[in-house]
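Researcher: I'm comparing several assemblies side by side, and this is the next one on my list. It has 1000 residues spread over two chains. Same procedure as the others: predict the full complex and return the structure.
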Amino acid sequence: MSENIKTVKNATCTFCGCVCDDMELTVDMDKHIITKAKKACIIGRSWFAEHTIDETRPVAMIDGQEVSVEAATEESAQVLTKAKFPIIYGLSDTTCEAQGQAVAIADYMRGTIDSTSSVCHGPTGMAFQGVGESTMTLGEVKNRADLVIFWGCNPAEAHPRLFTRYAVTTKGMFIPKGKKDRTVVQVDVRKTASSPVSNISIRLKPGKDFEMIWALRSLIKGKNIDPSIEEETGVSLEALQDLAERMKNCRYGVIFFGMGLTMTRGRHFNTGALFSLVTDLNEYTHFVVKPARGHGNVAGIDQVTTWHTGYPFGVNFSLGYPRFNPGEFTTVDTLASGAADAALFVASDPASNFPKAAIEQMKRIPVITLDPKQTITSSLAHVAFTTSTYGINTTGTVYRMDDVPITLRKVYDSPFPSDVELLTAIKERVQELMLSKLAATGAIGEAKVASRAS
Amino acid sequence: MSTIRIVNGTVYDPINNINGEIKDICIEDGRIVESVPEDASRIDAQGMVIMPGGVDIHCHIAGPKVNAARKLMPEDHRHDPHPGTSITRSGSGGIVPSTFATGYRYATLGYTTAMEAAVPPIGAKHTLEELHDTPVIDKGYYLLLGNNIFLQQLIKEKRHEELQQAVAWWVNVTHAYTVKLVNPGSDELWKGKRNSNISNIDETNDDISPRQVIESFVTTVNDLGFPHPVHIHCNNLGHSGNYKTTLETMRTAGDKRIHIAHIQFHSYGGEEGKNPTSKAAEIIEYVNQHPNITCDIGQVMFGKATIMTADAPLAYVLRGFTKNKWVNVDTECESGCGIVPFTYQEHVYTHTLQWAIGLEMFLLSQDPWRIILSTDHPNGGSFMNYPKLIRLLMDSSYRKEEMGRVNQKAIATSALNDLDREYTLNEIAIITRAGPARALGLNNKGHLGPGADADITIYDEMENKEMMFNAPRYVIKSGVPIISNHEFIRDYTGRLLHISPEYDVAVEETIRPFFEDFYSIEFDNYAVNDSYLHDNEVIPTGAASS
């Protein structure tokens, strides 16, 4: 072990949407490794332990050949501005500052921007647009929630500290005894690692979430439900009545939910029904709901895209202003339909998990990647940048799953540039190229090009 | 930097007692100066009106609740796209525009400064990020402290000195402009007691009443000498009979400075649960008699609006009327908020009465310096309604015409029929520029004297004042021409206006244990570092404002 050891307190773990900011990291500054991550959960410990820097990896490559950052930036800007339907995707594992530059590129090049939200909680965003949402920051759950429901999510494996730091065992202002003061309910189609935490476990038939939510809405409004509901959902009427009563009679209730609702049959109908259920419950008591978001800054890309464009994901600028249409401008669709003719992927590896038709299109078009590691997507890329890792090598802002902004602490320097540096450089070049393109076609007067340059 | 001389224009600059004189305005290095060399570039403002850039003292344009409302309403953006140009960014319009559209649209009305009126401290970073992406205008925000649980504990325990230090700390580390109170003392009832609400300024809950909270903050902020006093959204907003609460709130301040936000929404007579009546005269009379009070009207304009407020119980009440989509967000230890899309309709008694009360207040005002134009954007309607509102104030025949279109029962109960007053251009310059700048303690804004920021709007003089104020021919921001002949010729990033009150660092150790017990983020990660400031200007606190 080297002598050059540094401790960083209150560092941030950006692995999942909990974005715990109480890490105590021990860093070997010579070897550039994090040797200990105190307070991290099991996933967080792996995240920090496995973050090493491979200095042999080129900072930029074109078709597998090492090139300068400048050359790769120029090629990226050329590819994007020559394309008819360029797309940008990913962005849930980078800072808001980098995300803002990505949206600006999409705007200037009149392309399309989308994030990993479109394949996880996109339906949650659409349900929000439809019916709204009663929600909260995580500290409110810690301080107040006496009824905590986990629906179609598995925090024990996906967000381990949701239990200990925010929602179950933690003690709060009006919950002095922690878990003893709360009732924990799990609604899922199977037993999971999260089941042992719950006081009440409800197993429902796969794909019957909507029906169960609708039955609860009826019971809460005092309507009768036929006992055949058990046959339909796999949950007895008594169990539903008991849950409805608990919901109405708690002081501060919360439902966390996951992709068990958003990526199964019904999608935004499921989440819309859940949001409506929670709204109904506010006639009786205080009730809130929260999607358990996955990536470290997936909440951030929704926020950033919204303040730039008015819409959270799946936004197209080809008419010179933002348009939103999930199913048309979302990335699986723009790729699989063959519309996308150039792609910039930031901090994401869609070639590893997208449908086959979308991956086939990636292979046919010029792809640009920004990623700290080699990925399946970067391996097929025309231009591949190696970047520093957010929250370890760079500072910046991320939004926790509850939209609380947190500033990252840099732990040690990386030889690789950050996403925000690279995207800013690409943006500036894209803007120049678009201005001369517009001037050449007579779309704008020379005077305006000149005024911008001055 | 280039120098500019604007010649032949008719200047309205109330702070410097210039009321419609033809006068040259000279600009150098972003400021107004006495003179510039002969070779300075010239703008000929023959037949035009020159005013300082507009200052919006109360609007909701950035931060967590604003962005939630943006995300909530794709249907509203869809019909009002905001195309980019070769030099400006694109965006979405509608009642809650994207940040870029917000900045550009303020500029197209001749406004160059706007203050976001309600941000919970934990959302400060988010707000500063959005304000940075709001182009052209200078901007700042008010910090929600009226339901802050830690500060309420200090008030209950009468730890006045620590309260003052903690308030200074909170404002300092979040780079805010002043303290905002919204329905003070109500959050615990909403979040912790099954969605109930405060009904009376002296109602005690958990050993504290709204009056105690108001009194403590008014005193504290006065002692700290902030350039703008406590900015108060009174209890009981929107409820019939709430004018008594508003009067009591103003009385609580004694002769200390306060600002009452969107006062129109707090000037209703009648009995709780029944139709409201107008108490505009009573309220505005009190304001007229008390020079320590400034207010903005929060005028209701017919058409689309969005209720977005830290007054979560109010939003829930309105949701009960509209049955429309509803957002509620509880913010730990600090605040909450509610959002409901809303439409004010001419045929509805209450909506017309609200519209009439706002106009009554403008027309009964004896001191335009303290009764400021706002629509509480987007709560009373979009800021894009300002030109129409100006016409309603300046043109009594137009006003009469509009009065003919609305609910006549409501008009009959108001005093509007008896008010023939017409605002002058000089008075408009006061209620949209000079007055708000003075109320904010922004000594370099709202006027065109030497040393002022060269934020200047030049309008073609027209009979139809709505048209006139809708389309300035030139807008100059910090000496840089942004709009020329009605077209954007440059993009521009305005700066953040904030204060940095001094505090005793020992107070951090008083606050820290509370964070460790009850917040979900670490105390040491809470303060907002300077990377969020970008271009900024610190407005002095202390003796200057006393």
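Model: For your comparison table: The radius of gyration of chain B is 22 Å.
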